[in-house]
């Protein structure tokens, strides 16, 4: 072997040159022109000016395995088909994508959760319910991706303003397992005029089940005894929701509603 030459490959394989195209594919974000770097583009254009992959890259900060954060984000989006599907992915599913370890999966999950909470808190101030859509618009983003059933109770005053929103049950929501009296605990304590029940179907299909109808009937009967009207029961799925009032379930008291009760829900 001549002086200055590299030693031969012990496997007997020839050296394979790296093509310029491959080098450009595996370069880091710092090697990109400033105008193409996600953080610089964010500062110049604002969040709305970035693609979904670029926004995810900003959250992750760095790439992995010779690939930029944008490359990894594009791969993750391609595997899950949409931002919404990616937001519903578990930590295990995210970590299984090459280049995305536990740390990046945790950062992305945290970012999506902040987004869901910000939507749930909007609009700020009083939450007035005049129709089932007012319930769905506020809770759909948060509840549609829950992996377990949750039953929530919205307590309303006489002007249809929500004075308390609470989670009463997590698990299999049915009249045989839920203590109906618990649904009215906050309403009685706050002297609320009515309540709205909301729960999700992790299967994604918001079609009310026989258990949903049974629980609703039990709650309506209990509400008449406690003088707290059950105004509606909204079931949330992945991409839609169902109002049992809209489906024809009778929530009104015989002979009409009592004066001052919230009836618009």
Strand order of the largest sheet: 2-1-3-4-5
How many individual domains?
Answer: 2
> How would a textbook summarize the main sheet?
5 strands, mixed
Q: Percent of residues in helical segments? A: 25-40%
Helical element count? 10
Using only C-alpha atoms, the radius of gyration works out to: 27 Å
Shape, principal axes of CA atoms: elongated
Pick out the low-confidence regions: 9-26, 257-265
CATH fourth-tier homologous superfamily of the largest domain:
Cytidine Deaminase, domain 2
Number of strands: 5
- Using the 3D structure, state the CATH architecture of the largest domain: 3-Layer(aba) Sandwich
CATH class of the largest domain: Alpha Beta
Strand content: 5-15%
Could you describe the 3D structure shown?
- With 265 residues, the chain is an alpha+beta fold.
- The protein has 2 domains: 100 residues, Orthogonal Bundle (DNA polymerase, domain 1); 112 residues, 3-Layer(aba) Sandwich (Cytidine Deaminase, domain 2).
- The protein is 37% helix and 13% strand.
- The protein is built from 10 helices and 5 strands, in the order H-H-H-H-H-H-H-H-E-E-H-E-H-E-E.
- The chain has a 5-stranded mixed beta sheet with strand order 2-1-3-4-5.
- Helix 3 crosses helix 4 and helix 7 runs antiparallel to helix 8.
- The protein is elongated, with a radius of gyration of 27 Å.
- The termini are far apart.
Give the key terms.
single chain, 265 residues, alpha+beta, DNA polymerase, domain 1, Cytidine Deaminase, domain 2, five-stranded mixed sheet, 5 strands, elongated, disordered C terminus
């Amino acid at each position: 072997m001549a002086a200055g030459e590299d030693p031969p490959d012990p496997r007997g394989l020839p050296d394979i040159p790296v093509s310029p195209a491959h080098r450009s594919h595996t370069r880091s974000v710092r090697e990109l022109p400033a105008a193409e770097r996600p953080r610089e583009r964010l500062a110049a254009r604002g969040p709305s000016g970035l693609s979904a992959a670029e926004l995810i890259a900003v959250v992750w900060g760095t790439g992995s395995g010779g690939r930029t954060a944008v490359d990894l984000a594009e791969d993750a989006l391609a595997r899950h088909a949409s931002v919404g599907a990616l937001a519903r992915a578990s930590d295990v599913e995210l970590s299984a994508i090459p280049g995305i370890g536990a740390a990046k999966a945790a950062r992305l999950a945290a970012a999506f959760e902040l987004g869901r909470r910000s939507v749930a808190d909007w609009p700020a101030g009083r939450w007035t319910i005049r129709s089932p859509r007012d319930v769905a618009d506020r809770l759909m983003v948060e509840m549609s991706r829950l992996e377990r059933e949750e039953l929530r109770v919205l307590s309303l005053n006489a002007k249809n303003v929500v004075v308390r929103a609470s989670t009463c049950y997590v698990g299999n929501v049915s009249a045989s397992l839920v203590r109906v009296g618990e649904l009215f605990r906050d309403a009685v304590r706050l002297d609320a005029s009515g309540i709205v029940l909301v729960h999700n179907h992790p299967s994604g299909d918001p079609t009310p089940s026989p258990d949903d109808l049974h629980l609703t009937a039990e709650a309506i009967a209990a509400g008449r005894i406690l003088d707290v009207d059950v105004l509606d029961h909204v079931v949330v799925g992945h991409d839609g929701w169902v109002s049992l009032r809209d489906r024809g379930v009778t929530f009104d008291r015989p002979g009409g509603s009592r004066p001052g009760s919230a009836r618009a829900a």
